[in-house]
Amino acid sequence: MFIDYLLSAVLMLITFAIGSSLRFSDFENIFKKSKPLYLGLFLQMVFLPICAFIIAEFSNLPPAEKVGLIIVSICPGGTTSNFISYLIKADTALAVALTAINSLLILFTIPVLSNWAAAVFMGGHTEVSLPIFNMVWEVAKIIIIPALLGLLFNRFFPNVSLKIRFPLKVTNTILLGIVFFIKFFGDEQSGGSGISVDEIIRLLPATLLMHLSAMTLSYFIALKSFKLPGVQATTISIEVGLQNTALAILVAGTLMGNTDMTKPALVYAIFSFFTTFIFALITIRIRR
């Protein structure tokens, strides 16, 4: 649909803006001091799905929606989570590096864990195979290529890059807000989700609990247990808190063929950007 193409275009512009605020040396530092990177990947790929499983196990949700909750947890955040780090001046290079790596890891983890969730909660087994070439192209198109172009732009035109940084932040924020409003509150004919108020109310407690508990615990694990700087702890909590709901909808609705499984992702998408942004803004100001 048109709204999906518009969202992709906005995300590419956002990633370009993020890249134009970084230097190649920023990524060199991330990979040289790799503890934050490994911890972030563990919290995203292992800790969050464990939280989702515990909540799903003890919730009163129908089996298909329990599987949908697990699917949300195994689809780590993409460009929008990087955008929050960019807006609040967190460790944007760490955010982009996490996104680039987990976007490749999920090619293996999503089929395994989504099939496992269906077996546990629905007593059956649905073979899920991701369109690997298409997903690699989406990662390259929306994340890698625009970020690389932004990095090159900042390298060769640093003065111009500095001048357009603030206007790009404002423009991208407005565009993303408009697209999200249409996507989440519009009807299905306009490209919206079409989810009902009753479904939102039923799913809100479990999705909100998974979101807030995983994001908050990740922040304190990074800050207290691993002694990371506050900026990096906030960055990791952003990546754990904001999931790629568009991918979750693709996996649940298209690859697994179950519309009920998409509902947790739709509800999660309604609030998670705003709650993550507020949490990140508070923690970044406390610890900076």
From TrEMBL:
InterPro entries, alphabetically? BilAc:Na_symport/Acr3, Bilac:Na_transpt, Na+/solute_symporter_sf
Statement: the UniProt record of this protein carries the keyword Membrane: yes
Membrane topology note: Multi-pass membrane protein
Q: Pfam families of this UniProt entry? A: SBF
Q: Which UniProt keywords apply?
A: Membrane, Transmembrane, Transmembrane helix
Location relative to the cell: Membrane
Establish whether keyword Transmembrane helix is in the entry: yes
In terms of domain of life, where is this protein from?
Bacteria
Q: Which Gene3D superfamilies match?
A: 1.20.1530.20
- The transmembrane segments are 6-25, 37-55, 67-88, 100-123, 135-154, 166-185, 200-221, 233-253, 265-284
Record-level GO cellular component terms? membrane
Task: Name the chain's protein.
Answer: Bile acid:sodium symporter
Q: Which species is this record about?
A: Capnocytophaga ochracea (strain ATCC 27872 / DSM 7271 / CCUG 9716 / JCM 12966 / NCTC 12371 / SS31 / VPI 2845) (Bacteroides ochraceus)
